[in-house]
Amino acid sequence: MKLGRQTTLKKSVTVSGQGVHSNAPVSITLMPAPAHSGIAFRRTNLPGDMERVIEAKWNRVSTTELCTVLGDPSRGSVSTVEHLMASLSALGVDNIMIEIDGPEVPIMDGSAAAFVAAIDWAGIKVLRAPRRYIKILKPVRVDQGRSFSELLPAASGFHMDVSIDFPVPAIGAQSKMMDLTPARFRREISRARTFGLLRDVEKLWKLGFALGSSLDNSIAVDDTRVLNPEGLRSSDEFVCHKMLDAVGDLALAGAPIIGTYRAFCPGHKMNFLVLQAMFADRSSFQYVEAPARSEPFYGDFGLVPVPAFAAEAN
Question: Looking at 21, 36, 159, 268, which residue is catalytic?
Answer without folding.
Answer: 268
